[in-house]
Structures are given as structure tokens and as C-alpha cells.
Amino acid sequence: MTLLDVRHLSVAFGGIQAVSDVALRMAHGQIVTVIGPNGAGKTTLLSAIAGIIPASGSVTFGGVDLARHTVESRVAGGLSLVPEKRELFAGMTVAENLRLGGWRLRAQGFRAATRAMDECYALFPRLAERRGQRAGTLSGGERQMLAMARALMAKPTLLMLDEPSLGLAPLIVRDIFRTIRALRETGVSILLVEQNARAALAISDYGYVLEGGRIALEGDGAALAADPRIVEMYLGTAAR
Amino acid sequence: MTLRWAIPALALCVVLPWLPGLPLFWVTLANLIGISAIVVTGLVVLTGIGGMTSFAQASFLGFGAYTTAILSTRYGLNPWLGLPAAMAAAGLAAAAIGAITLRLKAHYLALGTIAWSVSLFFLFGNLDILGRNDGISAIPPLTIAGFRLVDVRLSATLIGVSVVGVIAATHNLLDSRWGRAIRALRGGAMAAASCGVDIARARMLAFVYAALLAGLAGWLFAHLQRAVNPTPFGLYAGIQYLLMAVVGGAAYLPGALLGSALVVIVNDRLQDWLPKLLGTSGNFEIIAFGLLLVLVLQVAPEGLWPHITRRRRHTHPRPIAAMALPKRVAAQANRAFEVANLRRNFGGLVAVADLSFTLAPGELLALIGPNGAGKSTSFNLLTGVTRPSAGTVHLMGRDVTGLSAPAMAEGGVARSFQHVKLVAGMSVIENVALGAHLRGHASPLRSILRLDRAEEARQFAEAATQLAHVGLGDLADRPATSLALGQQRIVEIARALAADPAVLLLDEPAAGLRHAEKQVLAALLRRLAASGMAILLVEHDMDFVMNLADRLVVMDFGTVIAEGPPEQIRQNPAVIEAYLGGVA
Amino acid sequence: MDQSIFLILLQDGVVNGAIYALLALCLVMVFAVTRVILIPQGELVSFAALTYATLDTGHVPASLYLLGGLGGAAFLRAAWAKRGTALLWLAVETLVLPAGIAGVTVWLAPQKPGVAVEVLLALAITAPLAPYLYRLAFQPLANASVLVLLVASVGAHLALGGLGLLIFGPEGSRGPGFSTAMLSLGDQVVPGQSLWILGLTLTAMAGLYLFFEFTLLGTALRAVAVNRLGARLVGIRTEQAGLIAFTLAGILGALSGVLVAPLTTIYYDSGFLIGLKGFVAAIVGGLASYPLAVLAALVVGLVESFSAFWASAFKEVIVFTVIIPVLLWRSWRHQDLEDEE
Fold this sequence. Notes:
heterotrimer; A: alpha/beta; six-stranded mixed beta sheet; 38% helix; B: four-stranded antiparallel beta sheet; 12 strands
């Protein structure tokens, strides 16, 4: 069953088309990756789906057209984004960040939120150790974990991750990707945007390659990973 | 806009007040409008164009008015001699207050002016020499050849001439080297600084200029009313001047006149109607003004002027025969840039850990790396926007570590920005001319008096040359922000070239360009390099970079992970790993 | 100056400082959550004080017109922007609530119900003005710059000031004290009113602290203040947060008005100067630090009371010039070149 259906999505800043006529579909329970070189429009694409920036075209999520939905109401509908800049509440503790992540569930009471927090701590034991620490003082990897955990507190149907491995050391990147795979087992669908093409494609059911704001290639994760054109796209074609 | 309107306007000032049948009451109202318009013109420069919101203009009016009042009553000085004194008092007060307050940004500055305004109001009302709250009365009127200007129609002519003069002077100032600097303050301060503009000086210039106009208005006010007291110089009056600017259109010179006329007339009518309507007297018009201010901001934040006139595009005359600007004497050095162990932390975050490279004259060097590798911070470190935490930068053999952006520009560095920073209210060619700021010398006063025309012609000829150079010559008179983003990037390159730099730093120049345009850009950059310019570029388009650069420096995690010619970089396993990632 | 005068001035300064502190806290909070610098806070102070004083004379205060009028206008503005969704709750908040408050006031006022009830009525009549003001003036400008919001705020101050003159007239009045008791502490006599002021301000501050530290709603407001996008990404609606911040500011501003009413004669425009002093304190705290703002408010109160003794004519000049060195110090700390919008 189709979870997310993006059609003819275009975003323009000033005179420049950052994303042009993108079509993207994914089903429940899938991990789908969008890869592409720097400046290809990946972050713009996710921001448009999350409703942070205006776009033309249509985004349908769980059968609902999101055209008139704000960021907040998309979150309430089960669509969460972990942005590239994490956007944590820097002066607040890890626990407070998580509790706010559960804002969507506030009607279900304190008990439910605490249970959700415990699940997050189980998924990211490092965060449990740091629960009293301010988010601004965390290391890069811990921040990424907190950003993911905060988004998971809202019990999203679809979690969108923008460059989760950005600026992180290889060992931590491995942890993050392992967690992403584990999340899928719990029924969360994941739309991943990554520069780390190899790692992302290795865990994906399907992948899109974005270049210059357009979908240049798409296919199964494994097939894409083997495609020699990917290398070309990242490092440029050989000089003539 | 040319000043051809000034002569008929002057004639009108002389004739209009004497039209038979014109009620004197209207002339009085016109006088009030004129005095307000002078103050508001200053606010247009300061707030609408310069981006510095001031609630304190009425206080500067007060400095002017009290100065001439004291000189002419207590010391019996000729009221005409009060004019330079009034303007000097307002200007000096502004310079002193500005020195303390102008470092504040945005809303802090606005709040600062509120504090000054309240403070000065109480000061005016409590000083014995200023007559405390009663003020000073029996101020002599102005005289011309022994003839006392007590008739409002004669005053109207004087005020009208002043308004025409003020608008002409302001127009001249804005259409000059320093005027472009002031126009760049709002939203383009970083770009202007990269062209060598001393931002603090430009801000002070706008602040003092606005105060000088308020001082002039204060002088007129004192001799027209023949009495002064603190009320018209308080915060409420200051807010009203700002209201006039906002209603008329704070960024437009004609808006000053329009806003003043509207507010003064509406004020007069309301003062007439409201007490009858409400049954009591009091200054209830402020209810209407408060609502009006909020409403205008919600509905027409640009004010009314842009809604009643379509912006005419004016072509800047560019005499082909203008002499070229003096060239910078190219320093003979075999190293244009030499960067050693540069480092920058933001709090606990290390943005650039250790950057070292050299750049020779005539070389095309590309800085590449994945997102977050520290390229943008490196760029800011090399152009004086950000100070390094450690390390050294040598520019043509000279140590320039930690110098400011204007100082780097002075040293011969010019740049473009990743997020294009063209000044919104200016045409393409004016933006490029801003780049030649350091190659001109005209002072603001010379510009006001129109004595800067020869140099201006040279600056615009240079700008036109550079625009033609980058292939945008036919777009010179378009509003800069109407261009496609890719073209705006190219305009930034032209602006950088107008500074006659020795080192050119370009941040993603090819982003948003079509394939053919990229080829043109590559050819241009090769030509510039061949002429001896050192070029450093950050670029994401690998095709473009690999075909263009002589050498590449690859950054990841804030350090250099590889360096060498393109073919070598492409095979480098560390680079492939950084770009494609490892399999987790 | 002998010791007894010193102690009297000290006491004056602390009591006034406490009220400024309350206002400073509101200003910091409203700015953090909505980026609005709430100049009209002063009008709330005046209106609450005058409403309280009117109620004590057994009359129905004219501020009910203001409540109904602003409520109705807020309804129309918000209904127009929303074009027909969630109107029921909006109507309750902006139409039914003022009607209810008016009904209770008309019923109770002639009975002279006593100071405690009068205080509560004055709060009920004045506090909702703040959220209505938010809906009318600031919510439509939610994406504007701080500077534009400041100019709009000054506009709202003008309009409310004029309405205050219209409603309350140019005459001032003074509200009854909460207590006429005089306590002696050694040689020093402390009026009961001062203790009420200190007690209520401390209670209000403690309440604010508990709300922001220990409730999810309070934490959400802080979240909006530290990272608006982050807050939206967890589903917190920023305009609702703004409405709550304004409501709190309305309650505390009205409380300050009721507290200050017995101390001095309040005119329709007195609140502005009182508010500005809270404002000086808020700026000392960088519009960001609550404890610094409170401390600065006490200093402002003391500077005011001591300068009133030595140089009474220049009292206000001195108080408002205090802000300049503070601004200077702040500006020297931030020297980075940044683009303003």
C-alpha cells in the first residue's frame, strides 16, 4: 500500500529551480533513500514534504492530500522530520527534549510519554546516560541520536532523516545505520536522504538519485549501489 | 531620476502661496507638512534605506530649535546665523549619541533611540536655560533684507525652497559612492564590507545626515512658531515622524512628502472631528494613528508610494569616454595567498581544524569536500568575516591574519557569496559600482553638491566594462534582484572584478547556471587567471571543477585530506571514501 | 541623609522594583516566545489600576467596553483569517468570555464586594485584553522581523493609550490599599501594602518558575523560545504559544496595575512610564535572562527612589539614561558583522 506519493514536486527560490518535477513513491514499512551530490536539492525536497517551505505539485500521505497542512499538523498526522541541522532545544536537557518530542501524545497522559521515553532510552542507551545533560553540550553523534529519538517520541508512521551521518565519525555512522534498520522492524517507514551513498543504499529497499534538482536514476538499493554512473555523478566525468 | 523637476517646483513654492482665494489655513497646513517632510526625508535615508529605525528624530528637531531659540533670544543673534548653529547642534548631538548607540543592531538600536528620546524629553523640560516646561517664547522671525517673514505665505516659500533643496541634496547623496554604501546597509552590509565599505562609517553618515535635516526643520519650526517647548520634541512626536515614513513608504524619497501630507492632514481633520464625535476633547487622533500604523504594516508594509506609482526604470548615463579608474598596483609576489594551520572553533565545535594551502598568482585552485566539511567557514576566515582561532594568513607576502573584511578588500581580496548578496533596491550596474567603492574618493559633501560627477562617470564606466566582461552588459539597468539566481551569481563576480582584485574568491559560482553558461563562466575564469589573477573557488559541480581547476584541495572534518591536480584527486581513495562513504 | 531616610528610600525602591520586576519578566517572556517587544504592557497596568479604582467606588468600569470591543474585533480578525474553521472555540474565547465577565461585573460592582473581589474583577476585565491584542496586531505579522513587530507594538501602544484617555478620561485615581496595617520593624515602619506587594510578586514569580520548569505547556513555551523550527517539528503550534504568552503577560501586567494603584495616583498614561522601567530592566537582561531582569528591576527601583531624593527633577532622565551604558556594554560584546533583514 502506498504511504507517500509525491508528484510533480517543484521548489523555486528566487529565479532558481532547486527541485524540479520530482515524483517519489514509497510503501508502508519500506526504507527509501534519496542520494545525490552536494547541492542536488535533497534537503529542499525533504523540507517541502515536511511543509517547512512552500512547493508546487502534490504530496499525498496515507491517502491524505497535504496541500493545506502546516508543519505542525503533518507531525500530528504521523509525518516527522529529523532535519539536517537537528534543531534541538539546546538549553534544555535530553529528557526535556524527549518529553517535548511527545507533544503529539500529550492527551494520553504523563505515563504514556514516560513509557515512550523508556523505549527511546532502550534504543539509544547513550541518551539514557545523558538524560540530565543539556542538549547543547552533547557530541555530534549524541545530538543525532537525540534528534532521532525526539522525532520517534511522536510515534511517526513515516520518519524522514536528513543526512543522519553528516559530520559523524565512521563508528557512530555504523551505529546510526544499524538503528535505522532496527526501526524498520518496529514498523516505522523511513525516507532517508544521504551523502553516504554506499551505506544508505545497503540498507534501502529502493533508492532515488537526485541531481540538479531532478531524479536522475532510480531503482532497487542493491542495483543502484552497483551502478557505475553513481561514482561518476559524485566525482565528475573524466576530462575530455 | 534627474533633478529637472526642481526648477518648476521652486517656481511653485514662490507662486502657489499667493494664489488669490487660497485660504491661509491651507498655507499653514502646508508649512507643517513641509517641516515634517524635511524630518521624514532624513528618516527615509536612515530607516527606510539604511535600515536603522529611530524613534528619536523629534529630539534632534529639538536640538535645532532650542539652539536657534537661545541664540536669537538670549544673545540677540541674527536668526539666519542660527541656521548653521542649529544644524551643527543637531549633527554634533547625533555624532555623540551615534558613537554610543550605533553599534546596536536592529531592534536594540530602535529601543536605544526610545530611551534617548524619553531621556532628552525630560532633559529639555527640566533645564533652566531651556525655560523648563514653559520653553522659550518671543523668538524673532526671520528677516530678508530687513523684511520680517511673519506672513505665513512668505514662510511657505522659504519652507518650500528648503524642502526642494533637501530632497535634491538627498537624491544626490543617495546617487553617489557613499549613497550606495548607505543603500547597502539594509540586507547587504556583508557584501558592502567585502567591497571595502567601512560599515560603521556608513551607518554614522546616515544617522548624522538625518539629524542635520531634523536640525534644519527645528530651525524653521522655531522661527515659524516663534516659541518652543518640549512637547513637539518628545517620543510621541518621534513616533509620529516614523509613522509618516512608514505610511508614505519608508524606502522612497517621494514617500516622505506623501506620508507627511497624509498624516498632517488626517491629524488636522481628526482633531476637528473626533471631539465632536466623542463629546470630549483630548488627543484622540492617536487612536487612529496607532491603528493606522499597525494596519499599514499588516496590509502594505512598503507604504503607499509604491502602490500609487509604477517603478520607472531609469538608465544611468554612461559616457563611453570616461577615463578608466586607476588600477591597483599589482604587488609582485610569487604567493598570492599563503594559509598555514588555520583553525576556527565555535564554542566546542571545531569548524576548521587545520587548513593549510598556498595559492599562486594566475592559479585556479578549487576547494571541495562534502557538506559540513568546513568550506564555508574557511571562506569566511580568508575574507575577514570570521576571525581565526589560530593559524596565519599571508596575502602577497603580508601578514593579514585577523584583519576585517574591508581591510582584506583593501589588500586586494574580492569575493562572491554562496547565498547571493546583491542589494535589493539597486540596479545591476549600481551593484557592480559598489564593488569599485575603494577606487573612488568623493566625500558625501562633494556628492551632495554634485561635484563628484567625473569620478562617478569613471566608476560607472568601470562597472559597465566588468558587466560586459562577464557577458551581462545588456542587463545593466535591470533591478538586481529581478535576475535569475544564476545570473545574480555572475553579477557578484562582476562586482568583485570592479574592485580590481589580486585574489578572487568565488563561492559556488556555477550553481544555478545552465550548461552553456557554465562554459562561458569557465572561459572567463581561465582568462582572468591567465591575466595573473589568483582564483580560489568552492564548487559542488564536479564536472565543472575537474575541467577547470589547476589544482584541488579536498577538505573533510575541517582538515585537508588530499591535494593535487584533478586526475590525481579523482583516483584518491580517501576522496572517494569522503564523497561516497564507506559501507556501514 | 540620615539612616531613617535611607531606609525609607530603600524600602520605596524595593517595592517599586518588585513591580518593575514583574513587568520585566513578562517582557522577557513575551519577547522570547513571540519576538514582540510588548510596549503596550504599560497600558494594561494603567487600565487595571483604573478599573480597580472605579470598582472600589461602586461603579461599573468603562473598561468593559474596551474588553467587549477588542474581543469582538479579535473575533472578526481571526475569523476572517481562518475562513470558517474552529470558530466555536474562538467565539467562546473572544465573545462569550467578555460577555460573561461583563455580566458578573454589572451584577457585583454596585454591591461594593470588597477589595479581594474587586482585585479579581479588575484582573478578569484587563488580562484578556492582551491575547485579543495578540490576535489583532501581532498574529498576522508572525513572520515579520523583530523590528517590524516593534513598530507595530508602538502603534498598539498609541491606539490603546488614546482609548485609555477616551474611556477613563484625563483624571487620575487611586485604588484602595489591600491593608492599612503598619508594622514596625525596629525604628522602621513598614506599611502592610508593601508586604502585600512583595508577597504577591514573589508568589507570581514562583508560579511562573513552576509553570515553566515543571509543566509540559511551560516547557513547550520555552521550546518555542529557544528554537521555533524545532518546536514546529515536534508539533507545537507557535501561534498558540504566542497566545498563551500574551495571556500570561495580561494577567501579570494587570496584577502589577492593581498592586501599584494604592501607591500613587494613576492616570490613563502613567502605565507607559512604569512599563518602560520594567523595560529598562528587561533590556539589561538582554531580553533573555529572567534572573538578570529581576535584579536589574530592583536596581532601577533603587536608582529611581534615590535620584528622586537628590535630583527629583532629573529622576526620569537618570533612570532612562541608565540603559545607555548597558546597551553599550551589550553592543561591545557582539562585534560580528551580520546582515540585518
